[in-house]
User: What shape does this take?
Amino acid sequence: MSDLLAAVGTAQTNIDRLARPDELRAAVEQVTKVAHAFGAQTVLAASPVAERLVSAVLRASDDLMGLIGDSPVGSKVLIIDVNLASGTSVAKAARTARHAGADHIQAAVLHQVTDVAAAAADCGVDKLVVLNETHDVSGHTGGRTTDSGL
Assistant: This one.
């Protein structure tokens, strides 16, 4: 039970941190870099807390569009989230993107908040990038990437 409470507390801290302009700016730069490296045409928030980050990414980049409702989607979609625990939110967003016509889906999340690391295949995406690990799931600091093998 204490692990769950710790994960929830960490997740809230990560969300609160984005209220600071310098933290939001840094997150936008990280996510935009991933989007451009992937060649994404469209971005999609995996959770309500990611909406603010997606909005900021869209404002910072002239070549990305947001996936809203039944709008057209490019073949490459980047799903964005603040926290990754089980991967359920990313998986739901991946289903939405595939239903909208995406051929290639990558996810970028700012923080992994649990000891159990979700893999790309678990989330229904081709590639999963964790930019800033909150929990050190691999014995080192820094980001982590997994491919689904699809």
About this structure: Residues 85 and 113 are 6 Å apart (CA to CA). The chain has five helices and six strands. Residues 135-142 have pLDDT under 50 and may be disordered.
